[in-house]
Design a protein that fits this description.
The complex is a heterodimer of chains A (248) and B (252).
Chain A (H helix, E strand, L loop, with lengths): L7 H24 L14 H6 L8 H7 L1 H8 L8 H5 L3 H5 L13 H7 L46 H8 L8 H4 L22 H7 L37
Chain B lengths: L1 H37 L8 E6 L8 H10 L10 E9 L4 E4 L17 E10 L7 H5 L5 E3 L5 E3 L9 H5 L6 E2 L6 E2 L5 H4 L6 H5 L5 E5 L6 H8 L2 E2 L11 E4 L7
Parallel strand pairs in B: 1-11
Antiparallel strand pairs in B: 1-9, 2-3, 2-4, 5-6, 7-8, 10-11
The chains are: A mainly alpha (248), B alpha+beta (252).
């Protein structure tokens, strides 16, 4: 099997090589998807397919198109950052067919407590209640409109919001002190707490007013020499003011 | 004259031989220049997520919304996003728990007096710019799109689970119905329509921020300017596109 001057064994090898190449190309054409490799090492067709999946959450703008009255109330309330579907559930089907598919209206206390039950890990300042103490068994919506949840009456006691601190302080040596002894609190703090923050003592001399040797306070109050006790550290570096002797 | 022809060929051969290193050198210079030109893709549509850890209240609405939006199996242990509860104790030890991914929120704990600090950390696929899961996929079923999102081709995945092992963030799972790998897509079907990912949409405290890396007006860019940012496991060089603000050093 000589072709011209090419020896037979080379020709046979060439035939095998060409045949394998043809088989490889046929198999490749059969099994590699059409769009594979167009934009990278994957099927380019799948990207629009994934992007075409149906949505379940319509988004707050879709809700506001019809329920503009509720959206307006909510926009100036403490719940302005919440999306409607956070409480009412996914509602893309309700946008499609407003009559047939109606979103859930949560009632009772459960869905509110999901965010507002007291947890130590929640950020400071986030409004939280202890469920068993805060008007037990009453549905939240009886007092708070969920779209405008400002409490109907201004809280009388600091402990209404600062329950954890109040309970710690009540069993400490500072139990008899009013919160305002140390925190000068503007009246507006009760109506709009985060816009009008209470003051906090800033210097160690504040504690010295009662606890310095020269202070004019009751004889039972423990005294230290403010000049050399604790160096230059503020008192609350070691003594937590709501529980100064550390009952934990 | 055969001798002359041989000499001529040798000269040509040496000539060509000298060209070879020059050509290689030229390619070596042009190659990197080309990649430089293509790596400026962080333009308008290059997505990333920011998470402000100190804002998360652990309500778990994001976990629930994610499962609803993406049809993730409702029974536990399959999550595209989940929330972890960290507690750092007086002795320096840390406990991490995520009961059912946090989908029902977190139960009020005992009055733990030895807790120094505690906080919630939402987790999800980090949409790495240098994704290990994509590197190991033997068939090209998982990939990074041109807008930076790592996706899974459900019809092409062979279910070998290699990517699940390769992910350093535990963000992948095997869908028990299709027996294929699955993971967070940044809600690709929503963001391509101009909507926010479902978890960002429902987050009541805006702890999750979504946007395009290249757009200066996006809320993500504002967070990048104003917060001290961190990513998970930076030493692995995966270059995550989920940025955490005010993250505690205990979080891995």
């Amino acid at each position: 099997m000589r072709v011209g001057k090419i020896p037979g064994q080379v020709v046979r090898l060439a035939i095998v090589l060409i045949a394998s190449l043809v088989v490889l190309l046929l198999v490749r054409a059969r099994f590699v998807p059409e769009s594979f490799g167009e934009t990278g090492h994957y099927r380019a067709d799948v990207v629009p397919a994934i992007a075409a999946q149906p949505i379940r959450y319509a988004g707050m703008q879709a809700c506001a198109e019809c329920h503009d009255d509720v959206a307006e109330v909510k926009a100036s309330s403490y719940h302005r950052g919440l999306t409607c579907e956070g409480c009412h559930g996914a509602a893309a089907d309700h946008v499609e067919d407003p009559v047939e598919a109606t979103p859930a209206v949560p009632s009772g206390r459960e869905s509110c407590l999901r965010c507002h039950e007291y947890l130590g890990a929640r950020p400071t300042g986030f409004p939280q209640i202890i469920e068993t103490i805060h008007n037990p068994m009453e549905p939240c919506a009886g007092c708070h409109d969920p779209h405008e949840p400002t409490p109907p009456a201004v809280p009388g006691e600091c402990s209404a919001c600062h329950r954890a601190i109040a309970s710690t302080k009540s069993v400490s040596h500072h139990w008899s002190l009013d919160c305002e002894t140390c925190h000068l609190t503007p009246q507006k703090h009760r109506e709009n707490p985060r816009a009008h923050l209470p003051e906090k003592p800033v210097a160690r001399e504040f504690c010295g007013r009662c606890h310095d040797r020269a202070a004019e306070s009751a004889a039972t109050v423990p005294r230290v020499d403010m000049a050399d006790h604790g160096g230059r550290y503020p008192c609350w570096q070691c003594h937590y003011p709501h529980d100064p002797e550390g009952h934990s | 004259m055969p001798d002359d022809r041989a000499a001529c060929d040798r000269r040509k051969f040496l000539h060509d031989l000298a060209k070879l290193p020059c050509a290689t050198l030229l390619l070596g210079v042009v190659g990197p220049l080309e990649t430089l030109a293509t790596e400026t893709e962080e333009g308008e549509e290059y997505y990333a997520m920011g998470i402000q850890v100190d804002r998360c209240i652990g309500c778990g609405l994001c976990v629930q919304a994610c499962k609803t939006e993406n049809d993730v199996p409702q029974e536990p242990y399959f999550f595209r996003t989940w929330v972890e509860h960290y507690e750092i104790h007086d002795d320096g030890s840390a406990t991490v728990e995520s009961p059912e991914g946090g989908i029902h929120g977190f139960p009020p704990g005992d009055d733990d007096r030895d807790v120094l600090r505690s906080f919630f950390v939402p987790k999800l696929c980090n949409q790495c710019d240098n994704p290990p899961c994509v590197q190991v996929c033997p068939v090209g079923a998982t990939f990074k799109t041109e807008d930076g999102v790592v996706l899974v081709d459900q019809d092409y995945c062979i279910g070998c689970r290699y990517c699940i092992q390769a992910c350093p963030y535990g963000a992948r799972y095997l869908d028990p119905r299709t027996k294929t790998a699955d993971k967070c897509t940044f809600c690709y079907h929503r963001i391509t329509k101009g909507l926010l990912p479902a978890c960002v949409e429902v987050c009541p405290t805006q702890a999750r921020v979504f946007g395009e890396l290249g757009t200066r007006s996006s809320p993500l860019h504002r967070m990048k300017r104003q917060d001290s940012l961190h990513v998970l496991k930076p030493s692995l060089n995966t270059e995550p596109k989920v940025l955490y603000a005010n993250l505690d050093g205990e979080v891995r």
